[in-house]
């Protein structure tokens, strides 16, 4: 009998050290820096040396080599790691950092020479938030912009008239779907543990949760025509603060469909075409997406 009183249906694979470090860095860079007494540069970077001195990372005894490995191996490209020297001249703030650290070798392994930021997902305000994004126009529209949510959240989205940032600075849209979603889903812990690197990467797309059971496709051209501004993050996520009301309205949804379950089509061309199943509001929709 398995120890620990885990949930029935098999235990989850243990959290790896890299995942633990990644989650802690994500929290710090997106949400916790101010609370932890860390100051962003104008474009959202933190000094790596300061990040490593944060108590949460110090308690894990995280090394700079581990930070570099987490950044390199992160399938969603959540982080950007650069030398301070590479940003010299981009703003007065970065010039000051560069002057303090001096002439930096790109191969330096000294964390004092490096800066790190989260590419998207912030709830903290960044002075030059637009500097993190490439503006999206009619000339560079991504082929797809899709937001993943849950069955239980969909009735709330519909009732509010559309998508809101919900505590973050932006609403997030992926520019594609995980290719693994077209393959049979594995259920057992043994199957999950045995998945190879290629399959694991196929199950990951920046800006999309694998647990998403409702997919909201955006008519990006129509949204731009209505004056909603969008930007593309370094890791390929479409971000927007919404309209003047902080909303991405249903009217610019090209299609909303259920993933798994009955595969219901809920919205077509900005109009609801199917009533939300009663069970969804109570979190009882079929399947897990």
From TrEMBL:
GO terms for molecular function: tRNA 2'-phosphotransferase activity. Belongs to the KptA/TPT1 family. InterPro entries: Ptrans_KptA/Tpt1, RNA_2'-PTrans_C, RNA_2'-PTrans_N. Catalyzes the last step of tRNA splicing, the transfer of the splice junction 2'-phosphate from ligated tRNA to NAD to produce ADP-ribose 1''-2'' cyclic phosphate. Residues 1-20 are annotated as: Disordered. It catalyses: 2'-phospho-[ligated tRNA] + NAD(+) = mature tRNA + ADP-alpha-D-ribose 1'',2''-cyclic phosphate + nicotinamide. Pfam families: PTS_2-RNA (PF01885). Gene3D superfamilies: 3.20.170.30, RNA 2'-phosphotransferase, Tpt1/KptA family, N-terminal domain (1.10.10.970). Its EC number is 2.7.1.160. One of its GO terms (biological process) is tRNA splicing, via endonucleolytic cleavage and ligation. It comes from Cryoendolithus antarcticus. PANTHER family: PUTATIVE PHOSPHOTRANSFERASE, TRNA 2'-PHOSPHOTRANSFERASE 1. This is 2'-phosphotransferase. Keywords: NAD, Transferase.
